[in-house]
Amino acid sequence: MSAIRLRFWGVRGSVPCPGSNTVKYGGNTACLELRFGEEGRLVVIDAGTGIRELAAHVMKTDLPKGPIKTQLFLTHTHWDHIMGFPFFIPIFIPTTELDVYGPVTFEDDTLDKILFGMLTYRYWPVRLEELASKIKYYNLKEGSRDLGEGLWVTTKYLNHPINVLGYRFEYRGKVLCSAYDTEPFRNVFDVPSDAPGYDAEAFKEGEAAAREENEKVSQFFRGADILVHDSQYTHKEYLAGKVGWGHSSFEYAVNEAHKAEVKRLLLFHHDPDRTDAQLERLERRIRANVEARGSPMQVFIAREGLEVEV
Amino acid sequence: MGRDTILPMIQAYVGKMPPLPVTVSKVLEICNNPKTSPVDLNQVISLDPVLMGKVMRLINSAYYSLPNQITSLVRAIIMLGINTVKNLALSTAVLSNLGKASDFQALNMEGFWRHSIAVGVTAKLIASKRNMDVKLREEYFIAGLLHDIGKIPLNNRMAEEYVQAVSLTDRDHIPLYQSEERLLTVHHATVGKLIVENWHLGENLSDAVTFHHNLADYSGSHRELVLTVAVANLFSNTYELGFSGDRYPENLGAGVMQELGIDWDYLESLENAVKGEIEKAQVFLKVAS
């Protein structure tokens, strides 16, 4: 029996993108189903549009066994990671107990306030107060937390234009990590020495800060059995105008995962313009490269319905 | 008005404290630019005690697994990301439109700003002279920049009483903190302590803000920093580098300068460098001198 099972219900970044070019990998935005142990304890990461179909699955397989008790971990509160929440049907069932965890912003609003800004009269007919289930909200920062029954989660801030948390779940000696949405930390003070405001000390401090932060992220997913990593762009696309947008390249994700001795890498958060054909080609190319360098790491392009277990 | 009324009022004010009027328009200009330059962002924040305090608060409260307090703005910008810092600065700048401070104020905020920069720059120069690690010098600048932050709520929220306190200083030739205490029951270092503790800025900055007029009672572990800020403050007041209401500052004990290995001749030699830094900042902020 496996310790951790993962199934993808949404793998896209930014915006849902159904259509003939996304049939194979799927057009829904981020949603991951995790199951732990024989009981199949359910934990969900992110409430992108993929959560709608996960909800149907949970209603069919979990509800007949008893009330749904689960945890939802939001990596951050950008639209594509929360827009499916009102379609998670169990929240309308009075017996459901849901704990929602996630990072908040500098504005100090609580998670429920941030999350349900979208559940107001002007945007949607259902209001937060109308959800029948018992929902609790937990603002997360960096740290570790005991989720009971031997399940632990550790969080790490990543690099995105808002606070984003990576999650590291540990259960019976197995590790699953998420590291999205994120891009490499970089020295933003690396400007030409004749540019106005150039500061040699700031440059030096910036170099050290970026290096140390990237090292911390690498340590965070070191040795993971499963790593789900941001790979919205190719390296070429990243350099051509996407630096600072908060997403990584395929090449960066593969290199970092390899260096950190990750066992299985799932490339995730596909650009909405990325076609099935492109993703197929990328998967072949990446696997050939990984094999050529003698790495034992297995690499997959995440797609809706793909299941991985350890 | 007693201490029991004043402190809660100030506590409530801290959350919505705006940046100094001197920096607001530059903050808006930089942060409303979709391609905000991190270099400009760094510069404008480092010229404003309120913005600096808020960024430091965010970085140190968000990352509670960090073993040490972060006192580098460069590092904070890289870790938090330009977008987050920019939006934090913008939302702080917007506060300046709410409840405009009265025109009737004891301290002109431009003079106060010059004084804050002067103490920050002087503290950093003293730290360099004492061969302090480059990484720690930034902490000296921040401590100097923030040392009088407690005067902002007093000046803005208790304007009338504060005018009297500054007048009392001028009339009786006593240090401002003493007239504040006499008339308001609290002085700016106590208020400053409240602010930096509310912002969770760490013991080093809190000690510098709390004890810069009370070295005799200090027995903590940031002695060098506290002493340096006190000396930088005395120097800036004596040489009228900016103005923060303290026309008759108290002399520090004879041993203080000795302990830091500096003397008045050395401090005098800094005057042009400090003025130069203030001038550069004025050009950047387009403040008329």
How would you explain this protein's 3D organization?
- The complex is a heterodimer of chains A (310) and B (289).
- Chain A is α/β, with parallel strands linked by helices and 310 residues long.
- Chain A contains seven helices and 14 strands.
- Chain A has one domain: Metallo-beta-lactamase, Chain A (4-Layer Sandwich), CATH 3.60.15.
- Chain A is 25% helix and 25% strand.
- The radius of gyration of chain A is 20 Å and the shape is globular.
- The mean pLDDT of chain A is 95.
- In chain B, α1 (3-14) crosses α12 (188-198), α2 (21-31) crosses α6 and α4 (49-62) crosses α5 (73-80).
- By secondary structure, chain B is mostly helical.
- Chain B contains 16 helices and no strands.
Briefly summarize what is shown.
The complex is a heterodimer of chains A (310) and B (289). With 310 residues, chain A is of the alpha/beta class.
Defining key terms:
heterodimer, A: 310 residues, alpha/beta, Metallo-beta-lactamase, Chain A, seven-stranded mixed beta sheet, 14 strands, globular, B: 289 residues, mainly alpha, Hypothetical protein af1432, 2 domains, 16 helices
Topology:
The complex is a heterodimer of chains A (310) and B (289).
Chain A lengths: L3 E7 L20 E6 L4 E5 L5 H11 L7 E5 L5 H4 L14 E7 L7 H5 L18 E7 L2 E4 L5 E6 L7 E7 L2 E6 L20 H22 L4 E5 L4 H8 L7 H10 L4 E5 L7 H17 L5 E4 L5 E3 L1
Parallel strand pairs in A: 3-4, 4-5, 5-6, 10-11, 11-12, 12-13
Antiparallel strand pairs in A: 1-2, 1-14, 2-3, 7-8, 8-9, 9-10
Chain B lengths: L2 H12 L6 H11 L6 H9 L2 H14 L10 H8 L1 H13 L14 H21 L4 H13 L4 H7 L1 H14 L3 H9 L3 H11 L4 H9 L11 H16 L15 H7 L3 H22 L4
Low-confidence stretches of chain A: none
Q: Helix- and strand-based class of chain B?
A: mainly alpha
Shape of chain A: globular
End-to-end distance of chain A, in Å?
9 Å
**Cross-sheet strand order for the largest sheet of chain A:** 6-5-4-3-2-1-14
Compute the number of helices of chain A. Answer: 7
CATH class placement of chain A: Alpha Beta
Mind telling me which CATH architecture of chain A this is? 4-Layer Sandwich
